[in-house]
Amino acid sequence: MERETMDVSLENCICYLSDDCLLSVFNKLESELDRNAFGLTCRNWLKVRNIGRKSLTFHCSFNPTLDKEHAKCIPKILSRSPCLERISLAGIAELPDSALNALRMSGSSLRSLSLYCCSGITDDGLAQVAIGCPNLVVVELQSCFNITDVGLESLSKGCHALKSLNLGSCIGISDHGVSAVFNNCSNICTLIITGCRRVSGVGFRGCSSMLCYLEAESCMLSTDGLLDVVSGGGLEYLNLHKLGSSTGLDGLGSLAFAKSLRILNLRMCRYLTDDSVAAIASGCPFLEEWNLSVCPGVHLPGWSAIRLYCNKLRVLHVNRCRNICEQSLLLLCDGCPRLEVLHINGCIKITHSGLALFTISRPDVNLRMDEVLSIGPSIENLFRMQ
Prior knowledge:
By secondary structure, the chain is an alpha/beta fold. It has one domain (86-382): Leucine-rich repeat, LRR (right-handed beta-alpha superhelix) (Alpha-Beta Horseshoe). Helices cover 35% and strands 10% of the residues. The chain has 14 helices and 13 strands. The protein has a 13-stranded parallel beta sheet with strand order 1-2-3-4-5-6-7-8-9-10-11-12-13, with no helix packed on it. Helix 2 crosses helix 4 (43-52), helix 11 (300-309) packs parallel to helix 12 and helix 12 (326-334) packs parallel to helix 13. The longest helix has 16 residues, at 64-79. The radius of gyration is 26 Å and the shape is elongated.
């Protein structure tokens, strides 16, 4: 009987706990399992759980029927969670613009939003985001095929605090939209435009020195556009993997003006010439990692320039460079004093004896036969709120 009395007394005490007190308890729960269990206790505790929720993530199910059901319930969940800081709706292709109206409930608290592969979202939905979430810092719009410069301009005008923006495969984006981002968001430091074939690069003209990370894989940047890309002077990482050329000419020598560049990915840049390699090597004194894999236009003069100027280079990728020869290896032996790793495989003019001689001359350099497709910092980390 005494035990039952104590249980009833404890239950009554819990019932009279204020929301602030319950929220304090909730915030001390570390596991998501415990947090969910807290919300299932009763309606009031569910309300407190929703208030305390800081992050909401929907995982792509690859099931169109299930994704449609998720899309229907998202507005209700968002409306009940007014203090969200991070939202990921990645992969919900059926998500309509109307679902984003509820983002206004989180309003000023929301700092990170991922709409990755939400192909149903249009400029109208992005306008709602811009109105309701003025303090966004991180936005992912990769593969949102229906977003154009109009939506991007709306977002940039409403979210001046943006620092990281992923526009990968947004085929409706052009230089006009990119220019709007730099005109309205002076703190942009990370930008991804991979696969945006309508961007020539001139939209970067006058970009802020804050821009230090740029992914522009499989783009068609013009010679003038490349010059504008580096105009801010702050780039430390640049990925131009598989850069196309509408003229068939090499304009990569413009990268010599990127004085702060530390990591450069030029893998499969087939129009790259020795002149541009020499310009980059002499103009970018802080280069630490350089990917030149599958660049057939680099010959002895290019390797000679790397040997002469790249005094801080630690990692060099030359996989499947058909015009690197054993004489080029000898040049690299005599230069690049800080070289630690050389990725070299599939180079038809290099023999086993040549590699052995290099190893004897430079035992401090690790020769690796693998081919690395992605170099530099992890994109996931760059788009993760701390």
